[in-house]
User: Which sequence fits this backbone?
């Protein structure tokens, strides 16, 4: 395993230096046809198709109902250790507190002529949340359930439907059900994959459609979300995970290497990049990566990530490091410098920023409170983390006074006629007649 080290003199040299990353940016369209067929099958055959796909890929003997009963959810929650329930509860409390600060209020303004203008903020009626089972249901992503369900609840969504793949025996991992129980969510379906996304978008007899779909998934799930976007809203199109660590000579090489590996172990396509102004530190980090990676349970995955999509980049100064960071627009950004707060104002593009040497990205992923569903592949240039706003819609309110039309009617009619819309103009003028 080798994590490349190279030097970049300025941000203008970065595009050429980063050519090895270009293949990672290309969307994988190899599953498009298969996913399109899955969506069509679910639209046409509903629950029958859901059972067929689930039996083929997850649980050969799966039988209806797909909806997990409230009794099964309660039993699963009781089977989880008290310690695990406390960890889940603590994380949920932090996540809820953070997202409650995001709530936007409706507002109205009154103009001098008596007209009232405003914006009404309302939650969507129903949200569908996808929770990956992970390795046949043995490594459940229950943190993803917390990160998507709690913002929806804070937004005020009245119906929350959770889809997660069944295990080989047809059960759902008890930790996922325990998290659902803690959040008072009783609509959990033992169905996963692209077919569950199709069901959430179009509805079946047993799984009614929703308005917004959120949550991470594999390439099939992500492709299905992309294809149903427009029929429903989605949180984002997320690619493989990534981290960028911006550091100086004050950092411990072992800590930086550990944080790089925390992303590299996710997926062979994950990317872990460290940018530093200290070439000696770069060499020590590479040595630590070799040593620590060998002892990881997922070392083979981490090795692929480090060799194919990761790097340690040496720059002449931190100013250049910051400029390159903004070019990359990483999903996760750690600022591990002597004075991270002096660096942070200069960062324009990042999904989430982790401040200081005592803030590993994992702290945010699980427990601190901010959302870990983040824009990837440079999309932090224009998009944001999953939030309360993901589950809200805004409606403009227009209540003009009679004097508003009397004063502004000629301008409105003239603008309408410039666009060739005579009926628009007359709808204004008729109200100005005696």
Assistant:
């Amino acid at each position: 395993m080798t994590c490349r080290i190279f030097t970049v003199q300025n941000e203008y040299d970065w595009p050429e230096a980063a050519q090895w990353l270009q293949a990672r940016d290309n969307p994988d369209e190899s599953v498009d046809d298969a996913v399109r067929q899955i969506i069509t099958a679910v639209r046409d055959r509903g629950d029958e198709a859901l059972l067929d796909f689930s039996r083929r890929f997850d649980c050969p003997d799966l039988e209806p109902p797909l909806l997990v009963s409230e009794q099964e959810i309660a039993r699963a929650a009781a089977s989880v250790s008290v310690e695990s329930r406390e960890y889940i509860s603590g994380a949920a409390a932090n996540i809820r507190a953070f997202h409650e600060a995001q709530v936007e209020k409706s507002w109205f303004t009154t103009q001098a002529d008596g007209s009232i203008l405003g914006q009404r903020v309302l939650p969507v009626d129903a949200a569908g949340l996808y929770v990956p089972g992970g390795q046949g249901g043995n490594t459940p992503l229950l943190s993803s359930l917390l990160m998507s369900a709690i913002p929806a609840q804070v937004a005020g969504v009245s119906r929350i439907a959770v889809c997660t793949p069944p295990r080989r025996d047809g059960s759902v991992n008890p930790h996922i059900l325990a998290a659902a129980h803690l959040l008072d969510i009783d609509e959990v379906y033992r169905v996963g994959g692209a077919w569950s996304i199709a069901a959430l978008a179009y509805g079946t007899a047993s799984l009614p459609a929703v308005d917004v779909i959120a949550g991470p998934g594999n390439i099939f799930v992500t492709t299905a979300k992309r294809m149903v976007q427009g029929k429903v809203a989605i949180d984002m199109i997320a690619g493989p995970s990534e981290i960028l660590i911006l550091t100086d000579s004050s950092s411990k090489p072992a800590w930086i290497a550990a944080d790089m590996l925390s992303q590299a172990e996710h997926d062979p396509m994950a990317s872990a990049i460290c940018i530093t102004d200290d070439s000696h530190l770069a060499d020590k980090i590479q040595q630590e990566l070799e040593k620590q990676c060998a002892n990881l349970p997922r070392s083979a995955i981490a090795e692929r990530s480090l060799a194919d999509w990761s790097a340690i980049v040496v720059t002449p100064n931190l100013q250049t490091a910051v400029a390159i960071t903004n070019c990359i627009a990483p999903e996760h950004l750690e600022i591990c410098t002597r004075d991270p707060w002096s660096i942070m104002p200069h960062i324009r593009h990042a999904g989430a920023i982790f401040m200081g040497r005592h803030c590993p990205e994992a702290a945010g992923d699980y427990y601190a409170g901010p959302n870990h569903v983040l824009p990837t592949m440079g999309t932090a240039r224009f998009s944001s983390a999953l939030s309360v706003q993901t589950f809200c819609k805004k409606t403009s309110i227009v209540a003009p006074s009679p004097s508003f039309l009397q004063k502004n009617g000629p301008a409105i009619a003239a603008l309408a006629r410039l666009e060739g819309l005579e009926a628009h103009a007359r709808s204004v003028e008729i109200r100005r007649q005696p």
The mean pLDDT is 95. The longest helix spans residues 82-100. The radius of gyration is 25 Å.
